[in-house]
Each structure stands twice: as structure tokens, then as C-alpha cells.
Specification:
By secondary structure, the protein is mostly helical. Helix content is 66%, strand content 0%. The protein has one domain.
Length: 277
């Protein structure tokens, strides 16, 4: 069984690139203002960063980096992280069950930047497409298709932990769907890190085209994307609840600050979702 990705295994430069990608995604739908970007900053772990890297992270609150630059840096990251980022982008592109020519071009560019082959990208897409029907209407045939997709992905050198970067996987774990988790070769009860959860939460809203090209594409929210946004908020609420349960009366100040930042992010995302209804 595969465990969730540990961000501590990648270098400070690669972590900074990943966080930069978060800020780029957050700004892509035009709904995150500077104050919210600062809130996201409060959620991120900068331990082990140099002073220059911390300064760069603070600048991302106002000026998110070019996602292409972030992806180029992540091309040198460990396989499970590199493939996970690609899976998250594929999941985002297929959020409304279709992939436009512009989104396909963006995925091809991301695949190239992350040094992922066309065959590997196809396997990731097949897994994402096989997972969706299992969420609402599981059948033995669909479970078999999901298992085959997971095995095909592993056979081309992609670790099973890649699936932890799909927003649906965290929802399935929360709902106790051990059948789906086992079908993908994933361990049970091993939640992704805060940053991975935040990644899937932020990518629920913008379109991939908007993220890559800087086009806000207002008014293109589908019912599917709204549902994913609601699920993302639910994930953040779970993170807040779990963190609150671990804090005592003498909790470290940075952990208290992190909890308040998560709560603020939940409130602002609910406000944005209400405006788009």
C-alpha cells in the first residue's frame, strides 16, 4: 500500500516552487485578493527555508510566479511528487468532464515541463476518468476498470501515491470508501499533508486554461466545479477540526495562527462560492 507524499522529502527550492504553484492557482480564478493570499501564506510551512526563499514566498502573496517556472523547477523533484502535480492538473482539467483544446494544450505543456511521457500522461488521465464513476455509482465493472487503470499507471513507472493529489481521493477516504482506496493500491488512514490538501482545495475553482494563461474566464463555473469547490471547503474544515483537536491550552503560537488562517480561508471561500451561485 502506498502512503501520502511527504513534503519534507523534497528540497527547499522545490517546495518553494510548489508553493508558488499554489499561489498561481489561487489567483487564477480572480477571486483571491491580496489579503487572502497572505492567509494562504500563513498556512505554509517554511521551515528549512533560507532567508531569500522566505522573502520570495512573501512576495508570492502579491505577485504569484509564472507557473511555467514553478513546473520547470518541479521537474527535478522526486517522482511521486512530480507525477502528483501532473495528476492534480489533469484532475482540474477534467473537473467538468470535458477537456477543451486550450486545456489539452496546457496539459501538454505541463507534461513536457515535468518530464512526463505521453504514455504516462494517458495513464494518469485514464485513472482520473475511471475514478469519477466510482464516486457516485460504484459497480463491480467500474471497480475492475479502476483497478486496471491503477495497475496500468504503476506499470509505466508512476507510483500509486500519485492518486493522493486527486481531490476526490481525500473525500473518499473521509467517507470510508475503502473499496476505492484499495482498488488504487492506497493505504488507509494516511491523509495527505496540509499542503497537498490545500492544493486540491485551491484547484477546485479555476479552470486550467485560466491558470496557465492568466485568463480569469468569469462565468464559466459549472455545477461540477461548484460541487468540487464545496468538497474543497469541506476538506479544509476537516483539516481545521483535526488541528483544533491536537491543540491544548499552551499550543504554540504558530499552530494557533495556522488554525485561524484555515478558518479565515474557509470563510472567504464560502463567500466566493456564494457570489458565484
Amino acid at each position: 500500500m502506498s502512503e501520502a507524499v511527504d513534503l519534507n522529502r523534497i528540497s527547499g527550492e522545490q517546495r518553494l516552487a510548489f508553493y508558488g504553484l499554489l499561489f498561481s492557482l489561487a489567483r487564477a480564478d480572480g477571486s483571491f485578493d491580496e489579503e487572502e493570499m497572505i492567509t494562504i501564506h500563513a498556512l505554509l510551512d517554511d521551515s528549512g527555508f533560507s532567508s531569500d526563499q522566505r522573502d520570495a514566498l512573501r512576495r508570492y502573496c502579491v505577485h504569484p510566479p509564472d507557473p511555467r517556472t514553478c513546473l520547470a523547477t518541479l521537474a527535478q523533484a522526486p517522482d511521486e511528487f512530480r507525477f502528483g502535480v501532473m495528476a492534480a492538473l489533469v484532475d482540474l482539467a477534467l473537473a467538468d468532464d470535458r477537456c477543451t483544446p486550450e486545456e489539452k494544450a496546457a496539459l501538454d505543456a505541463a507534461r513536457s515541463a515535468l518530464c512526463i511521457s505521453e504514455g504516462q500522461a494517458r495513464c494518469i488521465e485514464t485513472l482520473v476518468r475511471s475514478l469519477k464513476p466510482m464516486i457516485d455509482d460504484p459497480t463491480p465493472e467500474r471497480q475492475g476498470a479502476l483497478e486496471a487503470a491503477a495497475q496500468a499507471m504503476i506499470s509505466v513507472g508512476i507510483p500509486a501515491s500519485t492518486a493522493f493529489f486527486l481531490g476526490s481521493v481525500q473525500d473518499l477516504e473521509k467517507e470510508g470508501r475503502q473499496d476505492v482506496m484499495r482498488a488504487m493500491g492506497l493505504g488507509w488512514g494516511r491523509r495527505s499533508s496540509l499542503a497537498s490538501s490545500l492544493f486540491s482545495g485551491l484547484t477546485a475553482a479555476p479552470s486550467l486554461t485560466g491558470f496557465w494563461a492568466g485568463d480569469e474566464e468569469e462565468g464559466r463555473w459549472s455545477a461540477s466545479r461548484r460541487k468540487r469547490a464545496e468538497q474543497a471547503i469541506a476538506r479544509l474544515e476537516t483539516i481545521a477540526k483535526d488541528l483544533e483537536a491536537t491543540l491544548g491550552e499552551n499550543a504554540p503560537e504558530d499552530e494557533v495562527r495556522r488554525l485561524e488562517a484555515i478558518r479565515q480561508l474557509i470563510l472567504t471561500r464560502r463567500s466566493v462560492l456564494g457570489d458565484l451561485a
